[in-house]
Amino acid sequence: MIEAFGFADWQWLNEPGRWSVDSGLTVHTDPDTDFWRVTHYGFVRDTGHLFARRIAGDFRLVTTFTGAYTHQYDQAGAMVRTDPENWLKTGIELVDGHQQASAVLTRGVSDWSVTPIRDAEQVTIEVRRTGDTLTVRYGLDGAEPLTMLRLAWFAPDEQVWAGVMCASPDGPGCAVRFDRLELTEG
Cross-referenced Pfam families, in alphabetical order (predicted)? Predict the structure, then answer.
């Protein structure tokens, strides 16, 4: 159990080789890390870094972060996960040299959607679970209100892992700084 962001029960799934906690969380992603299942590429990857807590019922997860994305598919953001076959990851992913707002929903197999954004220094992601729905919103460089990115079905009432994720599928790794991480019930 790790103390950070006002709670003492954070845990790693796939702990990175380099990370630290102070007023925020700094991570250097390990190379060859990702979360993905089957679709298009035919492989299963469950090696990305997830820093999370357990929570059940309705909740709101908010994170604000910066990333030094340098290689194709470097990524950071938020994740909600029931098990290796049921999860949502969302945030920023570097695709063809540009940041994209990204969401991957996995129920046995992964689907992926991206939307072009201007490259941003700081990004805020909000994931809200209400009943059987996850709503994802994002904001760039402190912009309010947040823009909706995805609305998805997700099993209601199951206890999940919720927190921040990052990965580097193709490159040597990248630095990510999470300055804000809030996970509240209701």
Answer: DUF1349 (PF07081)
